[in-house]
């Protein structure tokens, strides 16, 4: 079951736990992101390898009926869920935006799809997004992970969130935090929380961090 469809099914359950407004508030799912920026033998960026760890509620829902006797679900048991999640994410560009010299780069079919449940009961989805065409980081390459509608909240891990793999000597990485919301935007987000309506189609990017890679 995909991230989005499972959360929609969760809405009636949430409504029983609190007010209907709070149950339908944005965002619905919280994800902690770790990403590897992959380089090829020519020193160009060839793909992004993601590791997304989900919040307790989604993790519990995703593993319902799978784990037995309190034991964590196995990777094999979670494999169908992983495939469904990543397959459905194609419609949303995998919530991943890579730009080279300001131009958006398209992704090829995802590989290395897997999901695991940790001892903390949180599930982590892993997959690799190869670029359709390797991109230069000579004029700066940026990576962002976000849901434009803010249905899902993505936040980079606080430490070691992004790594460069097989990068040429001299490449640098900086992680820029999003700017603080303006007063009107904060009000809009607050209203969305209580009404259950989306704060806007571009709201997610305003709250998204940005990894900036630059190579000589």
Structure commentary:
The chain is of the alpha+beta class. The chain has one domain (3-214). It has helices at residues 3-17, 20-23, 56-62, 75-89, 183-195, 203-206, and strands at residues 29-39, 45-54, 96-100, 103-104, 111-117, 123-135, 141-145, 152-156, 162-165, 172-176, 210-214. Strands 1, 2, 5, 6, 8 and 9 form a six-stranded mixed beta sheet that branches. A five-stranded antiparallel beta sheet has the order 4-3-7-11-10, with no helix packed on it. A hairpin with a 5-residue loop joins strand 5 (111-117) and strand 6 (123-135). It is globular and about 55 Å long.
What are the SSEs and their pairings?
Blueprint: H1 3-17, H2 20-23, E1 29-39, E2 45-54, H3 56-62, H4 75-89, E3 96-100, E4 103-104, E5 111-117, E6 123-135, E7 141-145, E8 152-156, E9 162-165, E10 172-176, H5 183-195, H6 203-206, E11 210-214
Parallel strand pairs: 1-8, 1-9
Antiparallel strand pairs: 1-2, 2-6, 3-4, 3-7, 5-6, 7-11, 10-11
